[in-house]
Amino acid sequence: MSALSHKMHSEPAVYVYEAPVRIWHWINASAILVLAVTGYFIGSPLPAQPGEASDNFLMGYIRFAHFAAAYVFLIGFLGRIYWAFVGNHHAREILAPPLLKASFWGGVWHEAKWYLFLAKEPRKYTGHNPLAALVMHIMFVWAAIFMIVTGLALYGEGEGFDSWQHALFSSWIIPLFGQSQDVHTYHHLVMWVIISFVIIHVYVAIREDIMSRQSIVSSMISGWRTFKDKGEVDKE
Amino acid sequence: MPVKETFYDVMRRQGITRRSFLKFCSLTAAAMGLSPAYAAKIADAMETKPRIPVLWLHGLECTCCSESFIRSGHPLAKDVILSMISLDYDDTIMAAAGHRAEAIVNETIEKYDGQFILACEGNPGLEQENTGGMSCIIAGRPYTEQLREAAKHAKAIISWGSCASWGCVQAAAPNPTGATPIHKVPGIADVPIIKVPGCPPISEVMTAVITYILTFERLPSLDRQGRPKMFYSQRIHDKCYRRPHFDAGQFVEHWDDEGARKGYCLYKMGCKGPTTYNACSTIRWNGGLSFPIQSGHPCIGCSEDGFWDKGGFYNRLTNIHQFGIEANADEIGMGAAGIVGGAVAAHAAVSALKRSQHKGDE
Fold it and tell me: Taking the complete model, does pTM exceed 0.90, yes or no?
């Protein structure tokens, strides 16, 4: 696959994001939206509801939506990891970037210069550019793992001692951080890391779509990457 | 051979009627979450098995644990607790003083070597060893020494209260005396430690732990942090009687608002119920009379590790002091996201400018 794509100068469109990756991307994005909004309102609830307690269940619904979206996020993430093993090599880019390769860091440096308006032209990549892969690896993949682990620990507290969530997560995560309140605080902080990531991600995707040499936004819908010029692809 | 004294003997000597004694047994069975059939088992154990001597040592503490004890609202519980606990040594409430009092400690250690329970109220200040500071000297000796010596001969240690369990207020930053919870004291004997945190803890929990050890001849099952599961496996929030208002989204917004009068959930007033493991919302205080949330005040999380250092008692979200200002996770996060958003907008503007400059080149 990769050998082919290098030689495809005359036939520039490359199938990069396979269907499971695309479906995961959009389900994951929706889950993050629900998680961030409901999570914020769990920490800072809406104004008090009038009437009898038995007539209202607002906090209950908000928390349910949070937990349901969290499971969608978790299962999607596990499915995505599975796909990194069986999918094409682009499916591994953000989960296992080649952090030990010097050429990868050279690519990161060039891309950083491009964003600082110091390089005249970005390089052309079929998959993620190295800087994108690095930022997604840190700000999304590791943040997601952190949120899943701390989230399950907090969820296990409500599920009780007999639950698998408590046995596998709460029982050691809570003392590791000190106490439950600390885990809550870090769970909040990393939510903002992910929100910051989303802001950057959306901006850069649209910007690259306009200014770089390949398609970005439409690729996550169709799966195909098209190129705007005949320059060399994946030059390191 | 010494006559085997039972808890029942002691209680009768203190003037507790058999009726009160049986009441205590059924109350304790209920508190431990056992079926009513166990009340008879407990009564039997209390009548037939030799009582477990308790040595009660005080380190750096405020005596709120003892105060909680002797003010147990239920007169019967109070008498039972006092006859169970204060028998051997407790420097706050015992009659003896000076050398005679100290002699009791040695006597208990000798007589009941490996048999007695060491109840620790408070903790040692380790700075007295490191820098020779003179905090917490008991009978001319540092408390740390007394503690290590007694621990060597104890059957088990009960870390009684948040001081002994976690460190509490004297271990709050910057902890000038080096106050250290019992399980972290270097050189303490390798005996099982049962943590009964709370500032103060509930007196019924203490007697129930001792009753459990007597009745079943083993230590109660503990969670990973060393607390008896039967009392610390759920959060205040899980069994709070105001929980329906939480689920409904009905909160007290101000101390004197309509919600406060109606008894709405205190979550927004900084209640730490959702992060605090204790039995207050089930056993309650002063003989089951009330507990903080019932009296309209949010839980301050006194049985949690380091609760003094977790920001204001009345903030739902913890202040993060490392940032140098009073800010919680959401304020910091929102600030960061705002900066990122601003940077993105600026970057977009520069990008557009650059692009328009290069338009002519292509």
Answer: no
